[in-house]
Amino acid sequence: MPNSLIFIGERPSHLEMEIKGKPDFYDAILLSKKSHHPTSNLSYHSIPLTQSRVTIHIRETNSQFNCQHQSLQLIEGRKQLSEEDAYDIFTNFAIKEDNKVAFLLIAGRKRMKTSEKDEPKVLAASKKLEV
What we know:
Elements: E1 4-13, E2 16-21, H1 25-32, E3 44-48, E4 53-58, E5 63-68, E6 71-75, H2 83-90, E7 94-97, E8 100-103
Antiparallel strand pairs: 1-2, 1-3, 1-7, 4-5, 5-6, 7-8
């Protein structure tokens, strides 16, 4: 699977894919090895990135996901996507280049307090100079 876009799920036909899970750190380790043998029921599928452009149409959001020239692009359909929707789409895929695997992970987001913020604390130090 060198230079490919990888997803976890099923491929009912050559033109369709059904995503069943999101790649995580463990998947990246398995995929980075030359021969990987997943022990779970998850099935890895790859889309070669040797072509100049790969376009995936996402039915749920009526949008397109393009991968070309080492860049990823999400094109909105009629419905405007929220930031969370866009991240959700990108987190379904991993990119493999030779033995390196990259995937997007959304860490727990900090929630800002709605109350007023305290003044920032300032730490200062001084030293008397002899003249």
